[in-house]
Amino acid sequence: MKIVTDCAADLTKEETEALNITVAPLFIQFPEGEVNSNEISPDEFYRRLKNIAPRIPTTAQPSSGIFANIYKKIIDQGEDVMSIHISSGLSGTIESARTGATQLSGKGVNIVDSLTLSGGERFQVLAAAFAARAGKPLDLILERLSKIRMDTEVIYTLETLEYLQRGGRIGRVQALTGALLHIKPIIVVDKKDGKYSTIGKERTILKALEAVTEHIAKVYGKETPLWVSVLHGQFAEQAENLAKLVQENVNVRKLEIMRISPVLGVHTGPGIVGLAAVPFHLMEELD
Q1: Edge-to-edge strands, sheet with 196-202
Q2: What pLDDT, on a 0 to 100 scale, did the predictor assign at position 54?
Q3: Parallel/antiparallel/unpaired status of strands 252-259 and 2-6
Q4: Are strands 22-24 and 27-30 parallel, antiparallel or unpaired?
Q5: Does pTM surpass 0.90?
Q6: Do domains 2-26+61-150 and 153-283 have the same CATH topology?
Q7: Domain 153-283 maps to which CATH number in 3.30.1180.10, 3.30.1520.10, 3.30.230.10, 3.50.50.60?
Q8: Would you say 189 and 149 are in contact if contact means Cβ atoms under 8 Å apart?
Q9: What is the dotted CATH code of the domain comprising 2-26+61-150?
């Protein structure tokens, strides 16, 4: 079985190559033309983002035709497909995947809604790829993905609401008020519908990072060993601060600091920092 995902999963190049994962593109549409998010570095993206201010680019999901071509190549090689994608509550990508699969009569293609994104989606993709490489059956893989989905936390904060305002993702008045008061929202991905939910607001980034850490400690306690991925746009110093806070307050078995995909940074700007956390045992080999 071969794993397919999209670039919102924030996989590294080394991971996709080592685990033979196919990554469908998401696109960023700048005024001067469209860019495959897989093919632009985060720093180059944020440079271009600042250069077109106050405008922001738009984003586009892969077409059903792109998915149909990906699936056909894999099936023609005699393999089945597990296609795991960014939450249906945040993107239409999975619908494109489903439509693409119908062009092949759906044969041999299993579509999975991660109901999350970024590091949370990455955990599911990695677990599926580990299990597929070990030859585990489909039902066991799906069962493990369901457990990971329900036990993963994705939470982040923003330095500014300016980019959400520019993109029309929140009301202008709310965004303006937030900018004036320097409000830092604490945002989680809801496991029920895979949509964003604001669970708090702070006045400073440090307080926001403390709130993120407190949330993780409340969910997992101090005993559960965790795999934690700290993620940021172009906010390395605050990512390091968050990593330190998390290590001091929960049981971290594995920690990494990573960059989010440019396609996810379109509506957040460079000042996004947060984490994805999952109980470590769920990422270990399937029995």
Answers
A1: 196-202, 184-189, 153-158, 272-279, 226-232, 252-259
A2: 84
A3: unpaired
A4: unpaired
A5: yes
A6: no
A7: 3.30.1180.10
A8: no
A9: 3.40.50.10170
Cβ-based neighbours of 146, under 8 Å, separated by 6 or more: none
Express each pLDDT in 48-58 by its tens digit.
999 998 888 99
Q: What is the DSSP string of 222-240?
A: TTS-EEEEEEESS-HHHHH
At 267, the amino acid letter reads H
Between CA 273 and CA 242 the distance in angstroms is 8
Query: Per residue in 97-148, pLDDT tens?
Result: 999 999 987 689 999 999 999 999 999 999 999 999 999 999 999 999 999 9
Q: What is the dihedral of CA 261, 263, 264, 266, to 10 degrees?
A: 130
Alpha-carbon distance of 33 to 196, in angstroms, equals 29
Residue type (1 letter), 216: I
**Which ranges in the chain belong to alpha helices (H)?**
13-18, 42-51, 64-76, 93-102, 118-133, 138-151, 162-166, 172-181, 205-220, 236-249, 262-265
